[in-house]
Recover the amino acids of this structure.
């Protein structure tokens, strides 16, 4: 392996949200460091570049709807049956307003109950359910490790002056839910430490997917919000992820690692 300190050899990782833009890059880093990765998702969205891992039995998608407790429970049971253990849970899945390509109103008086509830469930509710369902497996084996994925908007408010009329504004549900992820990390770490279960948080800053259709004027304004005057590249999350997912962080719990080019510090 590249570095024994961060080795993921012989570790089974459940990675929710692993089929997303950032998720796929982080999943690949875990695979490259030796992990076996199980991704509960409604469909398999990995391209052919992941086939070598699948063929080697290192990567598998388990069909699941993480909005459903029953479906989540069944997927986790299938993963445990397939591999005999679960070492790490990475809670990266998100849906609803502000996640998964869907936006909702930023004006508070225009947000209806259904949109609010879905957005909150899609940021903190899904993390709660997945955490709850994995605890039993961790307790039985005597250890476990959870990495929650937050957001800079769980730490700061969006600066709405950088948005234009044609750009979806970050909705109130997303930042509110992601702030909850940070607190839930603290709470879970305190509650589960007696069971030898660690819980930490990884908080990304601005990591937009830039394509030929991107509004580069907006991207430029976003870049200017960071100390480093650029947005992040997906692979720049992998070092922090490997630290938290591996035994290199064996004396770390309740920690939040922010990867944001300094954006939230001024």
């Amino acid at each position: 392996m590249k570095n024994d300190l961060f080795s993921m050899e012989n570790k089974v990782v459940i990675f929710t949200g692993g089929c997303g833009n950032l998720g796929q890059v982080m999943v690949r880093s875990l695979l490259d460091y030796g992990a076996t990765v199980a991704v509960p998702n409604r469909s398999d969205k990995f391209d052919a570049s992941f086939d070598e891992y699948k063929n080697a039995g290192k990567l598998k998608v388990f069909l699941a709807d993480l909005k459903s407790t029953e479906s989540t429970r069944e997927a986790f049971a299938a993963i445990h049956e397939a591999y005999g253990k679960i070492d790490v849970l990475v809670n990266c899945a998100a849906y609803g307003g502000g996640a998964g390509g869907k936006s909702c109103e930023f004006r508070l008086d225009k947000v209806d109950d259904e949109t609010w509830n879905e957005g909150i469930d899609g940021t903190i509710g899904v993390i709660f359910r997945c955490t709850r369902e994995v605890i039993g497996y961790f307790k039985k084996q005597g250890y476990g490790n959870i990495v929650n994925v937050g957001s800079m908007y769980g730490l700061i408010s969006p600066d709405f002056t950088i948005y234009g009329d044609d750009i979806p504004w970050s909705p109130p549900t997303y930042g509110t839910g992601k702030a909850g992820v940070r607190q839930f990390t603290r709470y879970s770490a305190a509650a589960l430490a007696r069971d030898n279960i660690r819980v930490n948080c990884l908080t990304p800053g601005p990591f937009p997917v830039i394509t030929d259709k991107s509004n580069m004027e907006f991207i430029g304004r976003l870049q200017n919000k960071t100390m480093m005057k650029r947005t992040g590249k997906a692979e720049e999350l992998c070092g922090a992820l490997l630290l938290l997912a591996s035994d290199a962080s064996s004396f770390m719990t309740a920690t939040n690692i922010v990867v944001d080019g300094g954006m939230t510090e001024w």
Notes: Helices lie at 21-32, 51-55, 69-83, 113-141, 172-192, 216-223, 238-245.
